Amino acid sequence: MLRAGDKAGIGAVRRMKWSTALPYDLTFDMETIRIEPLAIIEGRASGELEGLGRWTLQAEGLKCKVRYDWIVDVTKPWMVRLLFILKPVSSWNHAVVMERVRRVLRIA
């Protein structure tokens, strides 16, 4: 943790490093900017990803439905320049990474 934030966690900053299916990683900081207990956690990404991430939690009986909206742009110069060419590969890579996350979070 880079910064603890207040007692609710607002302002906390954590450094994330995500490995991809391709031979590169993305490193970014995620600052918690909003918490609505048992409903929403929102963060601002900065670094090699810039933008917003929002976890929305919704009770469904004894389970919890989780939605993650990830509205970010990459900032690595080579990715920005080549994205229009690499769009199909980038989309595949993104799908692989998100499936990994889904598997980790899934509780059967």
Name some characteristics of this structure:
108 residues, alpha+beta, single chain
Short summary:
The protein is α+β, with helices and mostly antiparallel strands and 108 residues long.
How would you portray this structure in words?
The structure is a single chain. With 108 residues, the protein is of the alpha+beta class. The chain is built from one helix and five strands, in the order βββββα. The chain has one helix spanning 77-105, and strands spanning 13-19, 25-36, 40-47, 49-60, 63-74. Strands 1-2-3-4-5 form a five-stranded antiparallel beta sheet. The longest helix is centred in the last third of the chain and has 29 residues, at 77-105. The radius of gyration is 15 Å and the shape is globular. The mean pLDDT is 92.
* Rg on CA atoms, Å: 15 Å
The number of helical segments is: 1
Structural class estimated from helices and strands: alpha+beta
Widest beta sheet: strand line-up: 1-2-3-4-5
Number of strands: 5
In helices, the fraction of residues equals 25-40%
